[in-house]
Structure formats: structure tokens, C-alpha cells
Amino acid sequence: MTTTKLKLNMNRVLLTRTLMVAIFCTAVLYVYFVGAIAFAAETRSQISDSISQYQSEISELEFSLINEARSINRASAVGMGLVQSVENEVVVVMRDSKTRLTFNE
Fold first, then answer.
1. In a domain? residue 105
2. Can you give the residue range of the structural domain that contains 73?
3. Distance of CA 45 to the CA centre of its chain
4. Three-class SS of residue 87?
5. How far apart are CA 7 and CA 4, in angstroms?
6. Residue 104 maps to a domain
7. Which site among 46, 49, 55, 92 is 20 to 30 Å from 74 CA-CA?
8. Least confident span in 28-37, 42-51, 55-64
């Protein structure tokens, strides 16, 4: 075997090994990312279910509170933010800027 053939064979072996390592790394990364995406989707689904359950519980509690407190007087209504509009005689909710929820605070 001549020197040039030996160098070509060594280059082919090195290229083959490099390609095998690259394919193996790509396969491992593919499995990792697919697993991470599946795990994130399942977690998001569980969070969505728990949010809907908590919202349902809050609605039930609000309903029971309204049923128990059937009598609302003018003082408690003003305390909750209800005011009577002078223009068309309807009750509306007025909120101060400090009671608003924002992401900037």
C-alpha cells in the first residue's frame, strides 16, 4: 500500500467516524427536544386544568357569597365601588387607579 492510499484511507476513516458522531449527537438531541416538548405540553395541560378548576371554585364561592348576602345597603355598595350615575340612573362600578392590577407595578 502506498502512502497516498494510506492517507486516503485514514481520511475516509476519520470522515466516517466524524459523521457517525454527528449522527449520534443529532439523534440524542432529537430525542431530548421531543421529550422536552412533550413534557412542556403535558405540564401546560395540567396547569390549564388546574386554572379552570380554581376558576370554577371561585365562581361557586362568589355565588354562595351573593346568596348569603342578599341584602346590600348603600354604604356597603359604595364601599365595593358601586355608584349611581346621575345621567341615566344606572348603577356602575367606578375604580380608583390604585386598585387596578398591572404588570408594571
1. no
2. 3-99
3. 9
4. coil
5. 5
6. no
7. 55
8. 55-64
Average pLDDT of 22-50?
A: 94
Q: Nearest Cα to 81, choosing from 96, 67, 71?
A: 96
- Tell me the HSE value of 92 on the side-chain side, using a 13 A CA sphere: 8
Cβ atoms 94, 81 nearer than 8 A:
yes
Q: Which one of 11-15, 31-35, 74-78 scores highest in mean pLDDT?
A: 31-35
Q: Look at residue 26 and tell me if it is in a domain.
A: yes
Structural domain total, the chain: 1
d(CA 52, CA 3): 73
User: Which residues in 20-101 belong to E strands, given as ranges?
Assistant: 82-84, 91-93
Upper half-sphere CA count for residue 17 (Cβ side, 13 Å):
6
The label of the residue with cell 341584602 reads 71
Nearest to 24 by CA among 34, 16, 12, 36: 16
Record the cell numbers describing residue 53, joined without a space: 378548576
Averaged over 91-104, what is the pLDDT? 52
83: Cβ–Cβ under 8 A, 6 or more apart, which residues? 91, 92, 93, 94
